[in-house]
Every structure is written in structure tokens, then in C-alpha cells.
Design brief:
With about 450 residues, this protein is mainly β. It has four domains: about 140 residues, Jelly Rolls (Sandwich); about 80 residues, Immunoglobulins (Immunoglobulin-like), CATH 2.60.40; about 90 residues, Immunoglobulins (Immunoglobulin-like), CATH 2.60.40; about 70 residues, Immunoglobulin-like (Sandwich), CATH 2.60.40.1220.
């Protein structure tokens, strides 16, 4: 029994020590010629290793460290490429031959190649390598932009083989919840840090291809465990996110995905009531949807709740004017990130216009596309001798206005409008009417 207890203690100590390993000069990732290695680009992190000579690189921030062990001698040509923002600029410096992968305090005589082009691709040349030698490469994310860096051997008769890299023991990092900031109209990803993991958190979003994800950010362990996606527009669709973590060999581990709630508000046929529909939140279990309503995105209060078996709701008593809605679910346990957050996962906020206008001669005019980006097509349904058309924001302030004569349709340039909700209003000798439109670019 004592032997079993001792073995268990040793396993615990091994897990604790392995999980705290970092990617720095003394603990680089291993590169093997037979594989293409991919890593998240480091951002917002100064280089902590000041004992080395970095040759042509005056800036050594946001660095990734690699090493390789030569198996077959000869020249080894590597290509470093990136994906992400078009402004990503990576540089590198290579040292060798070295005695071990942990060698640091590297001087200028050990530099074998160095590159600092302004592009997103660099080429590393290791000439006349010998079997058993070690080489070390530091990649600097000069532009500080998020993305992914890929390293592959693209030439030369030499190659690098595995030295049996054990890696760290890493558990997939779960998201606690994703939600929407109603005021900023942005998605927020929240997680609780694994105390045994001290690497970076790689935030990924599903692309237009199901099951395919792209890296949108890398968050350091020392930073707040909350990421705000400022690019995706929650009004357009739901979004699916996951978090990846990696060990010191560069192996990636993916946590389960979470998908936001996307809420649509339409007019129920025959009643003009506000009709809500949405997709199910995915990522944790819940039994109830909570319906929020208010006169502005900042005044939402709980209005009703329904069983999670249903994803539609009709408000049969909406107040007159512009009404805002949102749908939320609550995680099984409150998230405890490193900053205060709301405890629910909220959908996007939608607006619904209730008016007393019942004139049937204009009430069926069509607007397309909706949402619109640059141009709006308006079909009046009949030829009108004169017409005034305007667009107002949700506060009633007039933004655009045009007058027409003898027309049955018109095009309106909305390229100058910011993303958000607006009201398009028509006034003619046939009456008045208005519609809610969405600008989304």
C-alpha cells in the first residue's frame, strides 16, 4: 500500500511539473521534418530571454522558440508562413550547432541565419548540418497581430527527426459561456483558467465550413480569462467558438465548442404581434429560456420565461413604439473569470416597431436586402406621383431624406450609415408607412 501511495505521489508531482512548462529559450517546441508544425502567433508579450545575441533582429517581442535535431546530414531549408491578418509580419534568427535543445546564452558566432523581411513569409537555410547536431530557431511576431504560424521543411537533403519529445500534460480548456454585450453588440467568450496550465489560450471560431475553425486571438495565461470578438456581428448570425491549448511539443488540445443564440424578431401574420425565434444555445445544459424586453438595449428586464423545448415566442401585448428583445440562458454554475461579468448567456438584442399606422395603400411596401450594407432597394407596390422617403435612427433623429415623383421603386445609398437599427419612413398622397431596417457591413 505504501508503494502504491508513493507511486501516486510521484505521478502528481510529474503532472504538476510538466503542466507548468513554458515555451521559451530553454524549453522550445521540437520541429520534425516529416511533419508540418503549426502554432498560434504570440501577441502582447516581451521576450524574457535577454542572454542571447539576436543578430539582425532589433525587436524580439512575441516570440516562439523551436529546436531540431539533425538525423540525416546536409542542407535543411525551412519555410515559415503565417495565416491571419494581412498585416502579419514575422522575423527569425537561427543558431547552431548546439549541444542540447536547452542551450541559451547564445552569441553572435552561433547565428547561422537571420531574416527580417516585411512580409508574412520567411525562409530559413541551415547549411552543412551534421547528424546529431541541434539547432534552435526563434520566430518573432513583429507586427503583434493574432494568427497562426506554420513551419515546414521545403528543401535540402538533410532532415530533423524526433527525440521522443514527451510534451506537457494538458487538459482541453473548456469555455464557461459565450454571451453578447448588448451595448457594444459584440460576442464575449468567457472561461475559467486551469490552474495547472500556464501556457496561452488560443481562441478559435468556426468558419463558413462546418467543423473548420480559424484562430482569432491568443490570450496569455496572465491576462483576463475573457475575450471580446470585435469583428463578428451578432445581429447577422450565431457564432461557434472553442479554445485550444498546446504542450511543449506543439500538440494542440481542443475544448468543446459553444454556440451563441441568434434572435430574430418578425411581425406575426394577421396580428402584427412581435414574433421571436432563435437557435438553441449549445455548450452546457439548461432547462429554461428567459425573455427580456425593454425600451432600449440598456433597459432590458425579464419579461417572461419558457421551457427550453421551444425556440419561438409571440409577444401579444407589445407597447407602442420601438421595443427591444433578447433571449438568455443560465449556465449550471456561475462563471468565475478574472473580471466581473453577467451570469447569463445573452443573445443579440433585436428591435421591433409597433405603430398605429394602418393605411393599406402603402403598408405593404418592400425593402431589400434587409440587413443591408451599401444600397437599399425600396418597392412601393404602385406608381406614386410624389413621395418623401427618410431614414431615422432609433432615437427618431433623421439621418437621410429624399423626395421622388412618378416612381414605383427607388434605390437608397446607405453606405454612410453605421451598423445598427434604423426606421425607413414613407409619406405620400396615398398615406404614410414605415419599416425597421438593419445596416450590417
Amino acid at each position: 500500500m505504501k508503494k502504491i501511495y508513493s507511486l501516486f505521489l510521484l505521478m502528481i508531482l510529474f503532472i504538476a511539473q510538466s503542466a507548468t512548462a513554458q515555451n521559451d529559450c530553454s524549453t522550445p517546441y521540437q520541429f520534425v521534418s516529416a511533419t508540418t508544425s503549426m502554432y498560434p502567433l504570440i501577441t502582447g508579450t516581451p521576450n524574457a530571454d535577454s542572454t542571447n545575441d539576436y543578430g539582425c533582429l532589433l525587436n524580439q517581442a512575441n516570440v516562439t522558440w523551436l529546436y531540431l535535431r539533425v538525423c540525416n546530414p546536409g542542407q535543411i531549408d525551412l519555410t515559415i508562413s503565417t495565416s491571419g491578418s494581412s498585416t502579419v509580419d514575422v522575423d527569425f534568427v537561427a543558431w547552431g550547432p548546439l549541444s542540447t535543445p536547452a542551450d541559451c546564452g547564445l552569441d553572435s558566432s552561433q547565428i547561422v541565419d537571420c531574416g527580417y523581411s516585411t512580409g508574412s513569409t520567411e525562409f530559413v537555410n541551415l547549411s552543412s548540418t551534421l547528424a546529431g547536431e541541434y539547432y534552435k530557431i526563434m520566430i518573432s511576431n513583429y507586427s503583434g497581430q493574432p494568427g497562426t504560424v506554420t513551419i515546414a521543411q521545403t528543401g535540402g537533403p538533410g532532415n530533423a527527426c524526433s527525440t521522443g519529445c514527451p510534451g506537457t500534460i494538458v487538459s482541453p480548456q473548456a469555455i464557461c459561456q459565450v454571451t453578447t454585450d448588448a451595448a457594444a453588440n459584440q460576442n464575449i467568450i468567457i472561461w475559467e483558467k486551469d490552474t495547472m496550465y500556464t501556457g496561452s489560450y488560443i481562441i478559435q471560431k468556426e468558419t463558413a465550413t462546418i467543423g473548420a475553425y480559424t484562430t482569432i486571438a491568443t490570450v496569455m495565461n496572465s491576462d483576463t480569462s475573457v475575450y471580446v470578438d470585435t469583428v463578428s456581428n451578432p445581429m447577422v448570425q450565431s457564432f461557434k467558438y472553442r479554445i485550444a491549448t498546446n504542450d511543449t511539443c506543439g500538440n494542440l488540445f481542443y475544448g468543446p465548442s459553444h454556440e451563441t443564440i441568434h434572435l430574430l424578431t418578425t411581425t406575426a401574420l394577421g396580428t402584427a404581434y412581435a414574433q421571436l425565434s432563435w437557435n438553441a444555445y449549445s455548450g452546457f445544459s439548461y432547462s429554461t429560456y428567459f425573455i427580456y424586453r425593454g425600451t432600449s438595449p440598456g433597459t432590458l428586464v425579464l419579461y417572461d420565461s419558457i421551457a427550453a423545448s421551444f425556440t419561438t415566442y409571440t409577444d401579444v401585448s407589445p407597447a407602442a413604439g420601438m421595443i427591444y428583445y433578447a433571449v438568455a440562458v443560465f449556465p449550471p454554475a456561475p462563471c468565475q473569470p478574472s473580471r466581473a461579468m453577467n451570469h447569463y448567456s445573452l443573445s443579440n438584442v433585436t428591435a421591433f416597431l409597433t405603430t398605429g399606422i394602418s393605411d393599406t395603400q402603402l403598408s405593404n411596401f418592400l425593402v431589400s436586402p434587409n440587413p443591408a450594407a451599401n444600397e437599399l432597394n425600396v418597392d412601393f407596390g404602385k406608381n406614386l406621383s410624389s413621395l418623401d422617403m427618410s431614414i431615422c435612427d432609433v432615437t427618431g433623429k433623421q439621418i437621410l431624406a429624399n423626395s421622388y415623383s412618378n416612381v414605383s421603386s427607388a434605390k437608397l445609398d446607405v453606405s454612410s450609415l453605421a451598423n445598427g437599427y434604423y426606421i425607413i419612413k414613407l409619406r405620400s398622397d396615398k398615406g404614410v408607412a414605415q419599416r425597421k431596417i438593419i445596416i450590417s457591413k
